[in-house]
Amino acid sequence: MAANDGAASPPLANRVILITGANGGLGEAVARASAAAGANVVLLGRRVPRLTRLHDELEAAGCRTPSIYPMDLSGAVPEDYDVLARAIADEYGRLDGIVHCAAELKGLSSLQNLPLEDWFTGLHVNLTAPFLLTRACLPLLREREDACVLFALDDAQRTARAFWGPYGVAKHALRGLVSILADELENSPIRVHGVEPGPMRSALRARAFFAEDASTLPDPSAYARACVQLLAGTDRAAPRFVTLQPHSIAPRSLGLATFAG
Ligand SMILES: NC(=O)c1ccc[n+]([C@@H]2O[C@H](COP(=O)([O-])OP(=O)(O)OC[C@H]3O[C@@H](n4cnc5c(N)ncnc54)[C@H](OP(=O)(O)O)[C@@H]3O)[C@@H](O)[C@H]2O)c1
User: Fold this and answer.
1) Which ligand 1 atom is at minimum distance from the Cα of 217?
2) Strand pairing report for 190-196 and 241-245
3) Which of 122, 213, 224, 248 has the smallest set of CB atoms within 10 Å of its CB?
Protein backbone atom coordinates (compact mmCIF):
# COMPACT_ATOMS: atom_id res chain seq x y z
CA MET A 1 0.00 0.00 0.00
CA ALA A 2 1.31 3.45 -0.86
CA ALA A 3 1.97 5.85 2.02
CA ASN A 4 -0.81 8.14 0.88
CA ASP A 5 -3.46 5.55 0.12
CA GLY A 6 -6.59 6.64 1.88
CA ALA A 7 -5.68 10.32 1.64
CA ALA A 8 -7.41 12.35 -1.06
CA SER A 9 -5.29 12.45 -4.22
CA PRO A 10 -1.69 12.84 -3.08
CA PRO A 11 -0.10 15.51 -5.27
CA LEU A 12 2.21 13.17 -7.20
CA ALA A 13 -0.02 10.08 -7.24
CA ASN A 14 1.09 7.65 -9.96
CA ARG A 15 3.57 10.09 -11.43
CA VAL A 16 7.04 8.85 -12.30
CA ILE A 17 9.79 11.15 -11.13
CA LEU A 18 13.48 10.66 -11.96
CA ILE A 19 15.90 12.17 -9.45
CA THR A 20 19.62 12.51 -10.06
CA GLY A 21 22.03 12.71 -7.14
CA ALA A 22 19.41 10.70 -5.30
CA ASN A 23 21.82 9.69 -2.55
CA GLY A 24 22.91 13.29 -1.96
CA GLY A 25 21.45 15.84 0.44
CA LEU A 26 18.78 17.49 -1.71
CA GLY A 27 18.27 14.50 -4.01
CA GLU A 28 17.53 12.14 -1.15
CA ALA A 29 15.19 14.67 0.46
CA VAL A 30 13.29 15.23 -2.80
CA ALA A 31 13.09 11.47 -3.35
CA ARG A 32 11.58 10.98 0.12
CA ALA A 33 9.11 13.85 -0.31
CA SER A 34 8.11 12.76 -3.83
CA ALA A 35 7.61 9.15 -2.75
CA ALA A 36 5.56 10.31 0.23
CA ALA A 37 3.48 12.36 -2.21
CA GLY A 38 2.59 9.22 -4.13
CA ALA A 39 5.22 9.18 -6.88
CA ASN A 40 7.10 6.27 -8.34
CA VAL A 41 10.64 7.52 -7.90
CA VAL A 42 13.62 6.49 -10.01
CA LEU A 43 16.76 6.96 -7.95
CA LEU A 44 19.82 7.76 -10.07
CA GLY A 45 23.22 7.80 -8.41
CA ARG A 46 26.59 6.13 -8.36
CA ARG A 47 26.59 4.69 -4.82
CA VAL A 48 24.47 1.59 -4.96
CA PRO A 49 24.60 0.71 -1.23
CA ARG A 50 23.25 4.16 -0.28
CA LEU A 51 20.59 4.02 -2.99
CA THR A 52 19.59 0.56 -1.78
CA ARG A 53 19.25 1.85 1.79
CA LEU A 54 16.96 4.62 0.57
CA HIS A 55 15.01 2.16 -1.58
CA ASP A 56 14.46 -0.10 1.44
CA GLU A 57 13.52 2.82 3.68
CA LEU A 58 10.88 4.08 1.24
CA GLU A 59 9.50 0.61 0.70
CA ALA A 60 9.29 0.02 4.45
CA ALA A 61 7.44 3.34 4.82
CA GLY A 62 4.75 2.04 2.47
CA CYS A 63 5.71 4.15 -0.53
CA ARG A 64 5.57 2.79 -4.05
CA THR A 65 8.61 0.61 -4.66
CA PRO A 66 11.35 2.87 -6.05
CA SER A 67 13.67 1.94 -8.89
CA ILE A 68 17.42 2.28 -8.59
CA TYR A 69 19.40 3.38 -11.63
CA PRO A 70 23.15 3.22 -10.96
CA MET A 71 24.99 5.68 -13.19
CA ASP A 72 28.20 7.68 -12.98
CA LEU A 73 27.45 10.86 -14.87
CA SER A 74 31.12 11.68 -15.37
CA GLY A 75 31.60 8.79 -17.78
CA ALA A 76 28.14 8.63 -19.34
CA VAL A 77 27.80 9.18 -23.09
CA PRO A 78 24.66 10.19 -25.04
CA GLU A 79 23.66 6.57 -25.73
CA ASP A 80 23.62 5.86 -21.98
CA TYR A 81 20.85 8.42 -21.55
CA ASP A 82 18.86 6.88 -24.40
CA VAL A 83 19.16 3.53 -22.63
CA LEU A 84 17.94 5.15 -19.39
CA ALA A 85 14.93 6.72 -21.12
CA ARG A 86 14.05 3.37 -22.72
CA ALA A 87 14.37 1.60 -19.39
CA ILE A 88 11.91 4.04 -17.79
CA ALA A 89 9.52 3.67 -20.73
CA ASP A 90 9.73 -0.14 -20.46
CA GLU A 91 9.25 -0.18 -16.70
CA TYR A 92 6.58 2.48 -16.27
CA GLY A 93 5.42 3.54 -19.73
CA ARG A 94 5.67 7.17 -18.69
CA LEU A 95 7.84 9.88 -17.17
CA ASP A 96 6.32 12.92 -15.46
CA GLY A 97 9.28 14.74 -14.00
CA ILE A 98 13.03 15.03 -13.61
CA VAL A 99 14.83 16.68 -10.71
CA HIS A 100 18.49 17.37 -11.44
CA CYS A 101 20.20 17.36 -8.06
CA ALA A 102 23.52 15.72 -8.96
CA ALA A 103 26.42 18.11 -8.79
CA GLU A 104 30.15 17.87 -8.50
CA LEU A 105 32.26 20.31 -6.54
CA LYS A 106 35.67 18.91 -5.64
CA GLY A 107 36.57 22.02 -3.66
CA LEU A 108 37.43 25.65 -4.26
CA SER A 109 40.40 26.34 -6.51
CA SER A 110 41.79 29.10 -8.67
CA LEU A 111 41.47 28.51 -12.39
CA GLN A 112 45.26 28.73 -12.58
CA ASN A 113 45.78 25.81 -10.22
CA LEU A 114 42.78 23.71 -11.22
CA PRO A 115 43.76 20.30 -12.60
CA LEU A 116 42.47 20.28 -16.20
CA GLU A 117 40.75 16.98 -15.58
CA ASP A 118 38.60 18.67 -12.90
CA TRP A 119 37.57 21.34 -15.41
CA PHE A 120 36.31 18.77 -17.89
CA THR A 121 34.58 16.61 -15.27
CA GLY A 122 33.01 19.62 -13.58
CA LEU A 123 31.48 20.91 -16.80
CA HIS A 124 30.42 17.44 -17.83
CA VAL A 125 28.64 16.44 -14.61
CA ASN A 126 27.15 19.86 -13.82
CA LEU A 127 26.11 20.98 -17.31
CA THR A 128 26.44 18.42 -20.10
CA ALA A 129 24.93 15.52 -18.13
CA PRO A 130 21.68 17.35 -17.21
CA PHE A 131 21.42 18.53 -20.83
CA LEU A 132 21.89 15.03 -22.27
CA LEU A 133 19.59 13.39 -19.76
CA THR A 134 16.81 15.94 -20.31
CA ARG A 135 17.16 15.73 -24.10
CA ALA A 136 16.92 11.94 -24.07
CA CYS A 137 13.80 12.08 -21.89
CA LEU A 138 11.94 14.86 -23.73
CA PRO A 139 9.95 12.51 -25.98
CA LEU A 140 8.64 10.64 -22.90
CA LEU A 141 7.85 13.86 -21.05
CA ARG A 142 6.01 15.28 -24.06
CA GLU A 143 3.57 12.38 -23.92
CA ARG A 144 2.21 13.59 -20.57
CA GLU A 145 -0.50 16.20 -20.16
CA ASP A 146 1.68 17.87 -17.57
CA ALA A 147 5.37 17.29 -16.91
CA CYS A 148 8.10 19.19 -15.10
CA VAL A 149 11.88 19.42 -15.13
CA LEU A 150 13.71 21.02 -12.21
CA PHE A 151 17.38 22.02 -12.37
CA ALA A 152 19.12 22.80 -9.07
CA LEU A 153 21.02 26.07 -9.42
CA ASP A 154 23.24 27.94 -6.99
CA ASP A 155 23.63 31.55 -5.92
CA ALA A 156 24.56 33.39 -9.13
CA GLN A 157 26.50 36.17 -7.44
CA ARG A 158 28.52 34.00 -5.08
CA THR A 159 29.43 31.39 -7.68
CA ALA A 160 30.64 34.05 -10.13
CA ARG A 161 33.43 34.93 -7.73
CA ALA A 162 36.97 33.68 -7.35
CA PHE A 163 37.68 29.99 -6.82
CA TRP A 164 34.25 28.58 -7.81
CA GLY A 165 35.89 27.10 -10.92
CA PRO A 166 34.01 24.72 -13.21
CA TYR A 167 31.15 24.37 -10.71
CA GLY A 168 30.47 28.12 -10.86
CA VAL A 169 30.88 28.28 -14.63
CA ALA A 170 28.58 25.29 -15.16
CA LYS A 171 25.88 26.59 -12.80
CA HIS A 172 25.81 29.88 -14.72
CA ALA A 173 25.56 28.03 -18.01
CA LEU A 174 22.83 25.81 -16.54
CA ARG A 175 20.85 28.96 -15.78
CA GLY A 176 21.11 29.81 -19.48
CA LEU A 177 20.06 26.29 -20.41
CA VAL A 178 16.96 26.63 -18.24
CA SER A 179 16.01 29.87 -20.00
CA ILE A 180 16.52 28.50 -23.49
CA LEU A 181 14.79 25.18 -22.80
CA ALA A 182 11.85 26.83 -21.04
CA ASP A 183 11.40 29.17 -24.01
CA GLU A 184 11.54 26.29 -26.47
CA LEU A 185 9.00 24.29 -24.46
CA GLU A 186 6.70 27.21 -23.70
CA ASN A 187 3.84 25.76 -25.73
CA SER A 188 4.42 22.19 -24.63
CA PRO A 189 3.10 20.31 -21.58
CA ILE A 190 6.58 20.46 -20.03
CA ARG A 191 7.25 23.06 -17.35
CA VAL A 192 10.92 23.93 -16.76
CA HIS A 193 12.23 25.64 -13.62
CA GLY A 194 15.61 26.52 -12.22
CA VAL A 195 15.42 26.13 -8.46
CA GLU A 196 17.85 27.75 -6.10
CA PRO A 197 17.96 26.37 -2.59
CA GLY A 198 19.64 28.41 0.10
CA PRO A 199 22.66 27.07 1.97
CA MET A 200 21.97 23.61 3.36
CA ARG A 201 23.82 20.90 5.23
CA SER A 202 25.41 18.60 2.66
CA ALA A 203 28.68 17.07 1.53
CA LEU A 204 28.88 19.57 -1.32
CA ARG A 205 28.45 22.56 0.98
CA ALA A 206 31.09 21.19 3.36
CA ARG A 207 33.65 20.99 0.56
CA ALA A 208 33.29 24.73 -0.09
CA PHE A 209 32.74 25.97 3.46
CA PHE A 210 34.82 23.54 5.46
CA ALA A 211 35.22 25.85 8.48
CA GLU A 212 31.54 26.61 9.02
CA ASP A 213 29.37 25.04 11.70
CA ALA A 214 27.07 22.90 9.54
CA SER A 215 24.62 22.45 12.40
CA THR A 216 23.49 26.05 11.84
CA LEU A 217 22.32 25.24 8.29
CA PRO A 218 18.90 23.88 7.33
CA ASP A 219 18.64 20.23 6.47
CA PRO A 220 18.03 19.67 2.72
CA SER A 221 14.59 18.28 3.58
CA ALA A 222 13.56 21.89 4.30
CA TYR A 223 13.57 22.52 0.55
CA ALA A 224 11.97 19.29 -0.62
CA ARG A 225 8.31 20.22 -0.22
CA ALA A 226 8.77 23.23 -2.51
CA CYS A 227 10.21 20.92 -5.18
CA VAL A 228 7.21 18.59 -4.85
CA GLN A 229 4.85 21.54 -5.26
CA LEU A 230 6.61 22.53 -8.47
CA LEU A 231 6.58 18.96 -9.76
CA ALA A 232 2.88 18.71 -9.03
CA GLY A 233 2.16 22.02 -10.75
CA THR A 234 0.29 23.29 -7.71
CA ASP A 235 1.36 26.83 -8.55
CA ARG A 236 1.01 27.26 -12.32
CA ALA A 237 2.16 30.86 -12.00
CA ALA A 238 5.51 29.85 -10.50
CA PRO A 239 8.28 31.76 -12.27
CA ARG A 240 10.97 30.12 -14.36
CA PHE A 241 13.57 30.72 -11.65
CA VAL A 242 12.48 30.01 -8.11
CA THR A 243 14.45 30.82 -5.00
CA LEU A 244 13.54 28.17 -2.47
CA GLN A 245 13.04 29.22 1.11
CA PRO A 246 13.10 26.53 3.78
CA HIS A 247 9.64 24.91 3.91
CA SER A 248 8.06 27.35 1.43
CA ILE A 249 8.33 28.77 -2.05
CA ALA A 250 9.18 32.44 -2.21
CA PRO A 251 9.18 33.07 -5.94
CA ARG A 252 11.72 35.63 -7.04
CA SER A 253 12.43 36.00 -10.72
CA LEU A 254 16.20 36.02 -10.96
CA GLY A 255 16.30 36.74 -14.70
CA LEU A 256 19.36 36.79 -16.88
CA ALA A 257 20.41 40.13 -15.41
CA THR A 258 21.94 38.27 -12.48
CA PHE A 259 24.64 36.91 -14.79
CA ALA A 260 26.49 40.11 -14.17
CA GLY A 261 26.73 39.37 -10.44
N1 LIG B 1 24.29 22.48 -0.32
C2 LIG B 1 24.04 23.74 -0.60
O3 LIG B 1 24.20 24.62 0.25
C4 LIG B 1 23.53 24.12 -2.00
C5 LIG B 1 23.24 25.48 -2.23
C6 LIG B 1 22.76 25.84 -3.48
C7 LIG B 1 22.59 24.88 -4.46
N8 LIG B 1 22.89 23.57 -4.21
C9 LIG B 1 22.66 22.61 -5.31
O10 LIG B 1 21.78 21.60 -4.82
C11 LIG B 1 22.03 20.38 -5.53
C12 LIG B 1 22.21 19.25 -4.54
O13 LIG B 1 23.38 19.50 -3.78
P14 LIG B 1 23.61 18.89 -2.33
O15 LIG B 1 23.94 20.02 -1.45
O16 LIG B 1 22.51 17.97 -1.98
O17 LIG B 1 24.97 18.10 -2.58
P18 LIG B 1 25.39 16.59 -2.27
O19 LIG B 1 24.79 16.12 -1.00
O20 LIG B 1 26.87 16.56 -2.40
O21 LIG B 1 24.70 15.81 -3.47
C22 LIG B 1 25.23 15.83 -4.77
C23 LIG B 1 24.90 14.51 -5.41
O24 LIG B 1 25.46 14.48 -6.73
C25 LIG B 1 26.02 13.21 -6.92
N26 LIG B 1 27.07 13.16 -7.95
C27 LIG B 1 28.20 13.90 -7.99
N28 LIG B 1 28.93 13.51 -9.05
C29 LIG B 1 28.24 12.51 -9.66
C30 LIG B 1 28.49 11.69 -10.78
N31 LIG B 1 29.62 11.80 -11.49
N32 LIG B 1 27.57 10.75 -11.13
C33 LIG B 1 26.44 10.61 -10.41
N34 LIG B 1 26.15 11.35 -9.33
C35 LIG B 1 27.05 12.28 -8.95
C36 LIG B 1 26.63 12.87 -5.57
O37 LIG B 1 26.91 11.49 -5.51
P38 LIG B 1 28.08 10.90 -4.57
O39 LIG B 1 27.47 10.80 -3.21
O40 LIG B 1 28.37 9.60 -5.20
O41 LIG B 1 29.22 11.87 -4.63
C42 LIG B 1 25.48 13.30 -4.66
O43 LIG B 1 24.51 12.31 -4.57
C44 LIG B 1 23.27 20.63 -6.38
O45 LIG B 1 22.89 20.88 -7.71
C46 LIG B 1 23.89 21.87 -5.77
O47 LIG B 1 24.58 22.60 -6.74
C48 LIG B 1 23.36 23.17 -3.00
Assistant:
1) 3
2) parallel
3) 213
Amino acid identity of residue 261, one-letter, is G
105 CA to middle of ligand 1, Å?
8
Handedness of CA 175, 181, 186, 190 (dihedral sign): negative
Residue 152 burial (CB count, 10 A):
26
Distance, CA of 72 to CA of 65 (rounded, Å): 22
Give mean pLDDT, residues 242-251: 72
What is the rounded average pLDDT of the residues 234-242? 91
Q: Ligand 1: list residues with CB < 6 Å.
A: 21, 23-27, 45-47, 72-74, 101-104, 125, 152, 154, 197, 199-200, 202-205, 220
Distance CA 70, CA 47 (A): 7
The whole-model pTM stands at 0.94
Cα–Cα distance for residue pair 174/168, rounded to 1 Å? 10
> Does residue 255 have a pLDDT over 90?
no
**Strand pairing of 97-100 and 241-245?**
unpaired
Q: Output the CA 1–ligand 1 centroid distance in Å.
A: 31
pLDDT tens digits for range 138-191: 999 999 999 999 999 999 999 999 999 999 999 999 999 999 999 999 999 999
d(CA 76, CA 128): 10
Q: Which CATH class is domain 16-260?
A: alpha beta
167 is catalytic: yes
Domain boundaries, the chain: 16-260
